[in-house]
Amino acid sequence: MAERKYKIGYTTGVYDMFHIGHLNILKRAKDQCETLIVGVTTDELCYKRKRKYPIINEQERMAIVSAIRYVDKVIPQADMEKINLVKALGADAVFVGSDWKGTDVWKQYEKDFAKVGCTVIYLDHTDGISSSILRDKLNK
Question: Is 52 annotated in the active site?
Answer without folding.
Answer: no
